[in-house]
Design a protein that fits this description.
The first copy, chain A, has helices at residues 5-11, 23-42, 50-56, 61-67, 71-81, 87-94, 100-120, 122-133, 137-162, 171-190, 192-197, 202-218. In chain A, helix 2 packs across helix 5 (71-81) and helix 7 packs across helix 10 (171-190). Chain A has twelve helices and no strands. By secondary structure, chain A is mainly α. Mean pLDDT of chain A is 90; it is low at 1-7. Helices cover 72% and strands 0% of the residues of chain A. Chain A folds into two domains: 9-81, Tetracycline Repressor, domain 2 (Orthogonal Bundle), CATH 1.10.357.10; 87-218, no CATH class. Chain A starts with a helix and ends in a 7-residue tail after the last helix. The interface between A and B is large, with 60 and 60 residues. The first copy, chain A, binds a DNA duplex (30 and 30 nucleotides) through helix 2 and helix 4.
DNA sequence: AGAAGTTTTTGACGGTTCGTCAGATTGTTC
DNA sequence: GAACAATCTGACGAACCGTCAAAAACTTCT
């Protein structure tokens, strides 16, 4: 049996003294997380201070430390509390046929859903991405779990398209390709500014993403309407 | 004529009092940048303090403020001082034919070059990426310029592959596709950990990236050896 | 050499945030 | 409403911030 302290932590939050918070305590904790999220929309990760969160939540810094050891932990809790699951996106991928024009419209649908998903969580996700890039294992796990279902679904599409013939690739290779595609989709959103800098409209971006997606998943050129 | 104060700043650094530093001053400035880079390898962006840099450089915090208003500006200067140009990668793309098996090996070559490029600058680039995602315009420019040449080169490859026929796409669409591909390549490196978490070896990753690249640039399926 | 001027560094300081703790406040139970 | 438990906060020493005036190091000129 592995140590599941980290898993417990998710839905069994403790106060700094180790006891389980009650109704009121949990409400305060939730309020602190909400304020953290709100401030992260307005200010940079580096500038965000404990005292800012406390002020926003109309309480004192000491209260913050009652529930979280530091800001990083609060953001971890925030990421866990937020519904960062890509399963609905996985359903989009799985539920439909990827053949021909219909398949291409599924690709477009997925792109839209993913753009929306990332957009609606961008302020948390950009911090998660940084911490993962910094090698922070606590955030590593969250990000992996978040993308896991979508990646598996996409790997299945590749498997279907390949059929059962001799050219069939290994599970690992399909996961690699799916992962690469997810990485692309995820980070185009984060850097939409860069594309605007180059004068590229979002519509073209969306189309290009769908093209890359469709082509790499099915192995066929994207159908031109 | 546009305001080129920002451009001047790059190779015309000023002290906090507005005067040009001399030999010794520039040496100190450079040393501070070096220490900033070194510390960024060891500790997280959020934890990095001015006093850490000063200590590492065997000087006082006041000296740091003589050359940079804050840490963010030091990292900006660091990113500008570092050679973050993708032109050599652009040359890899441009110099060779993208047809058939030879083309696929160019794709592999590009993937390798890009992985190495990102790896060798990862600690700076992950901060640049965060700040760009936060909408920081000063870093926006750096990142765009950095990727500009490579993206243009890749857009040219798409144009070549499309020929001059009627199915030819617009310049903007080709830039969009190239940009999407660059986004993919760039960020797979940053999140290599995630792939290891899934048990995907780097060799598979490299192959998948080359596949996606080749397929999307040339419009043809990747040749199987 | 050394006086005069310039550049660079630093010690010192007031202000802010950090993280902790003991005690005050609020809520619950009997 | 008394006793107990949960929650909050004021207060504090430590660390870091950002600024300034003056010390120190270096250059130039006679």
């Amino acid at each position: 049996m592995t140590d599941n302290a980290a898993l417990e932590e998710v839905d069994d939050p403790r106060a700094s003294d180790g006891r389980r918070p009650g109704r009121r305590g949990l409400a305060t904790r939730t309020r602190l997380l909400g304020c953290t999220a709100a401030l992260l929309e307005r200010m940079s990760y580096r500038e965000l201070k404990v005292i800012d969160i406390a002020r926003e939540a109309k309480t004192s810094p000491a209260t913050f430390y009652q529930y979280f050891p530091d800001i990083e932990s609060a953001i971890l809790a925030l990421a866990e509390a937020t519904n960062l699951d890509t399963s609905p996106l996985g359903e989009v991928v799985r539920g439909q046929s990827w053949k021909g024009k219909a398949g291409y419209s599924v690709a477009l649908e997925l792109v839209d859903a993913l753009l929306e998903f990332w957009e609606s969580h961008r302020s948390v996700l950009r911090v998660v991405d940084l911490l993962v890039a910094e090698g922070n294992l606590r955030f590593q796990g969250i990000r992996s779990r978040m993308l896991n279902d979508l990646t598996l679904a996409m790997a299945d599409v590749i498997a279907d398209a390949e059929g059962t013939g001799r050219g069939r690739s290994s599970t690992q290779k399909r996961m690699a390709t799916a992962g690469v595609l997810v990485a692309m989709l995820a980070n185009v959103t984060a850097h939409r500014f860069t594309f605007e800098f180059w004068g590229i409209p979002t519509a073209d971006l969306r189309r290009s993403m769908a093209d890359v997606l469709y082509t790499s998943l099915t192995g066929k050129a994207a159908p031109r309407p």
